[in-house]
Amino acid sequence: MSIVTEEICRAFEERRRLRLSNSETDGTSLCLFGNIIARWVDGEVYISNAGWKSKTTKERLNGLTGVSIVQRAGSWYLNGNYWEGEWTSVNENNGIRATMQTEAPQEDEFDITSEWVKAKGYNKPVYAVYRADSSGDAYLQGAKLTASNVKFRMVETDTAGEYKPNFFLVVMPEDIELAKSLLINQI
74, 84, 83, 52: which is closest to 152 by C-alpha? Predict the structure, then answer.
């Protein structure tokens, strides 16, 4: 957990004002990039992902007492229960904490962010097998992978200095050769 997450969550829980990096609290609401992701209502803490299933949103929320969010196959689970990010109370009295597991389940993670390489004027994840300028193109190619039972994740990045998205299909290392054989114009 980052220092920003620790400090901003502590300030929110202590109902103090604080602004750090991309996060801010006035003591009643906790905001990330201007979106309210937690708030005090009648003495209870309510959380929401504000429509953003990002790693930073998940980290900030996990910094709060009584919150354990894990991601499996692209879905979020709040204290062991499937959660779409809607406003939910996380106080002990509402039964949600009672379902919290003593040990968080292991996430099925693709290593998509730790290793990147240069390719044709842009950076790409090491295990990327396809790149497109639109998500639709990437999903069409992803359908070919799904039909052959190859698990993948789609990762979106911006080109440095401008908004020009790159959409990558990333597979597990053991599936790279099979995935490349299924796709045309792979990278």
Answer: 74
Domain boundaries, the chain: 3-99, 116-182
Helix/strand/coil percentages in the chain, nearest 5: 25, 35, 40
Residues whose CB falls within 8 Å of the CB of residue 122, separated by 6 or more in sequence, listed in order: 131, 159, 166
User: What's the confidence (pLDDT) of residue 124?
Assistant: 75
Q: List residues bridging with 128 in a β-sheet.
A: 170
* Helix (H), strand (E) counts: the chain: 4, 14
Radius of gyration of the chain (CA): 19
Q: Is 88 in a helix, a strand, or coil?
A: strand
Alpha carbons within 13 angstroms on the beta-carbon side of residue 125 total 26
Task: Take residue 49 and report the two structure tokens written for it.
Answer: 């992902």
d(CA 175, CA 89): 40
List the CATH code of the domain at 116-182: 3.30.70
Rounded to 5°, angle at Cα 101 from 100 and 105: 125
**What are the tens digits of pLDDT across the range 67-105?**
999 988 888 999 888 898 898 988 754 433 333 333 333
> Closest Cα to residue 20, out of 66, 63, 67?
63
Q: What is the 3-state secondary structure (H, E, C) of 38-82?
A: EEEECCEEEECCCCCCCHHHHHHHHCCCCCCEEEECCEEEECCEE
Please determine, for residue 9, whether its predicted confidence score (pLDDT) is greater than 90: yes
